[in-house]
């Protein structure tokens, strides 16, 4: 099976994560003179209970202690993240309002909906916190025991196999299209409203396969088949589960989640908040807690996060364009 350049992260990715590891091993950066004057709001552009919301709340519980003000999570779902993102645009760029953005809202959506009422590149990177680990899963009755057998089955299936995602133009959808391009197979996309329903659809045998968060799929392992993780290396939650690359498909489809500030936010503010967030993410307790929830910690500071976002835009955007993924906006 052949690889494609947008499916795996190159030297920039490795350098960023090495730098992040060094930063987590060292004491937190000295914070500047800026201090919040009131509670800091983290806008989550999705409903409660999803990966972005879980990560925001875990961070909010701990970070406020380091800045002298609490962090408050506010869910503002709607419009594939547009409603919550626009909240930040109407807030002053003074550090008291942040958004827990994701690859769905700030990497994929701008390509799928070019009529967005804002430019995501103008938001100020604060901390690239973590990424959600995706896994390829199959219904228990599918006659395929590993990724290679799924590919072989898909190539001869008529009608085509089906794959679930948690919504049109979601990272789950784009990951499925990445898989198709890499393997040369044809599969029919079946979107659901959320990662839970998409996973349960595979478990119930409604669809054949899906690329979904491994933390959502793992509790259903008795009802579906876990085939591999779509990461550069094995994930500690399921160390026995090989990567897709180990099975011949060089697919990396982890989806970032991180904090952004409103356009125009001063660098000093971003650096101060990042120092407090990085300190919390660097603790063994937080890393273990996030791993149990299906996350892999990155904790990239403003500069490294900005470079990472630029690389991610190219990686995901090329697939969105090639697969003609679109949302009418």
Number of strands: 11
Query: Total helix count?
Result: 11
How far is the first residue's CA from the last residue's CA? 36 Å
Q: Biggest β-sheet, characterized?
A: 6 strands, mixed
Count up the domains: 2
Overall geometry: globular
Sheet-strand content, in percent, reads 15-25%
Uncertain runs? 1-6, 14-31
The ordered string of helix (H) and strand (E) elements is HEHEHEHEEHEHEHEHEEHHEH
Q: What is the CATH C-level name of the largest domain?
A: Alpha Beta
Radius of gyration: 19 Å
The residue-averaged pLDDT reads 89
Helix-strand category: alpha/beta
Q: Report the helical percentage.
A: 25-40%
Assign the CATH superfamily of the largest domain. Answer: Bordetella uptake gene, domain 1
Can you list the strand order of the major beta sheet?
2-1-3-10-4-11
Could you tell me the CATH topology label of the largest domain: D-Maltodextrin-Binding Protein, domain 2
The CATH architecture classification of the largest domain is 3-Layer(aba) Sandwich
């Amino acid at each position: 099976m052949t690889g494609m350049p947008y499916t795996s992260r190159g030297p920039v990715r490795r350098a960023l994560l090495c730098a992040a590891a060094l930063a987590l091993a060292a004491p937190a950066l000295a914070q500047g003179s800026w201090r919040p004057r009131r509670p800091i709001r983290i806008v989550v552009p999705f409903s409660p209970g999803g990966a972005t919301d879980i990560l925001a709340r875990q961070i909010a519980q701990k970070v406020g202690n380091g800045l002298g003000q609490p962090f408050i999570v506010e869910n503002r779902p709607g419009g594939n993240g547009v409603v919550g993102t626009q909240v930040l645009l109407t807030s002053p760029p003074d550090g008291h309002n942040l958004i827990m953005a994701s690859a769905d809202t700030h990497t994929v959506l701008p390509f799928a909906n070019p009529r967005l009422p804002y430019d995501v590149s103008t938001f100020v990177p604060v901390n690239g916190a973590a990424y959600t680990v995706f896994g390829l899963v199959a219904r228990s009755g599918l006659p395929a025991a590993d990724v290679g057998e799924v590919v072989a089955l898909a190539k001869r299936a008529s009608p085509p196999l089906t794959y679930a995602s948690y919504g049109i133009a979601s990272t789950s959808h784009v990951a499925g299209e990445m898989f198709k391009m890499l393997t040369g197979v044809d599969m029919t996309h079946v979107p659901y409203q959320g990662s839970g329903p998409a996973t349960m659809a595979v478990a119930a045998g409604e669809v054949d396969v899906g690329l979904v968060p491994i933390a959502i799929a793992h509790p259903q392992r008795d009802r579906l088949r876990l085939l591999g993780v779509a990461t550069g290396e094995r994930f500690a939650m399921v160390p026995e589960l090989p990567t897709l690359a180990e099975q011949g498909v060089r697919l990396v489809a982890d989806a970032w989640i991180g904090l952004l500030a409103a356009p125009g936010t001063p660098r000093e503010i971003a650096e101060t908040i990042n120092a407090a967030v990085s300190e919390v993410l660097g603790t063994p307790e937080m890393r273990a807690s996030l791993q149990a929830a299906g996350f892999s910690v990155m904790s990239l500071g403003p500069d490294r996060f900005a470079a990472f976002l630029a690389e991610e835009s190219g990686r995901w955007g090329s697939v969105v364009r090639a697969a003609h993924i679109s949302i009418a906006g």
